[in-house]
Amino acid sequence: MQLIDGKAVAAQIKQEIAAEVEQIVAAGGKRPHLAAILVGHDGGSETYVANKVKACEVCGFKSTLIRFEADVTEAELLNKVEELNQDADVDGFIVQLPLPKHISEQKVIEAIDYRKDVDGFHPINVGRLNIGLPCYVSATPNGILELLSRYQIETSGKKCVVLGRSNIVGKPMAALMMRKAQPGDATVTVCHSHSKDLVKECQEADIIIAAIGRPNFVTADMVKEGAVIIDVGTTRVPDATKKSGFRLNGDVKFDEVAPKCSFITPVPGGVGPMTIVSLMKNTLLAGKKAIYD
């Protein structure tokens, strides 16, 4: 069993990005600039955004954090989005989700200029992803592809089960694993809460990508010997031994599943760090106008 160390891979990629940014700046080019909008004070969102700002520093990017209180109106938020769309210095920006209930997330996502949509959530980027055109790939699936690639995990012709059908992970992940490329070329099954033979599907899978949001959902009896397990789950579970009062728990019952695997990602330290680094990769592409000029 080999542990997939997302933390180490992410650190390596940040160094690669930083080196490229220094070359760009040395050659008289523009330093890539990522902006983030944060609404309210959700604990998880605060942590994510702080980590994104930190990652920008390591990569040598310029970063701007724009904060709004939770009672900001939808119109005010959309005005700020339009301002960032028009700002030539901002290469890419994100609006941290979830948003308060009175704001339509879809409306906000669609208001973002797709050429600056480094989260890869705009329907144009999602559509381009699905037909295999260059685009900003959403961060978590992109990070998973990078791990499969760097660990040289064979995906061609393999049976891959994706657990979960969210727009952010499940659906794009399925499309990427089906694409004519490496990693890709897999036979993909997407399972969700209404799937009848979910356990049987998992038992036959060479690769399981668990993004169902239910702690310890995947157990040893669902996994065949030698399978590759990618655990996307991050549920906060109360834990008195931790300073924060909680620990992050994956969708996979790690201790009992790990011995059966050829490769497995831990939680934390697996997919999580790769998600932020994927955003950095998209920001670099945006800065270089590599996808949309």
Q: What can you tell me about this protein's structure?
A:
This protein is α/β, with parallel strands linked by helices. It folds into two domains: 27-117, Leucine Dehydrogenase, chain A, domain 1 (Rossmann fold), CATH 3.40.50.10860; 139-272, Rossmann fold, CATH 3.40.50. Helices cover 39% and strands 17% of the residues. The protein is built from ten helices and eleven strands. The strands form three sheets. The protein has a six-stranded parallel β-sheet. Helix 7 (170-178) links the parallel strand 5 and strand 6 (187-191). The radius of gyration is 19 Å and the shape is globular. The N and C termini lie far apart (44 Å). The model has no long low-confidence stretch (mean pLDDT 96).
SSE blueprint and pairings:
Elements: E1 2-3, H1 6-26, E2 33-39, H2 43-59, E3 62-68, H3 74-86, E4 92-95, H4 105-111, H5 123-130, H6 139-150, E5 159-163, H7 170-178, E6 187-191, H8 198-203, E7 207-210, E8 227-231, E9 235-238, E10 246-249, H9 254-257, E11 261-264, H10 271-287
Parallel strand pairs: 1-11, 2-3, 2-4, 5-6, 5-7, 7-8, 8-11
Antiparallel strand pairs: 9-10
Helix pairs in contact: 1-10, 2-10, 6-7, 6-10
Question: What is shown here, in short?
Answer:
The protein has 293 residues and is of the alpha/beta class. It contains 10 helices and 11 strands.
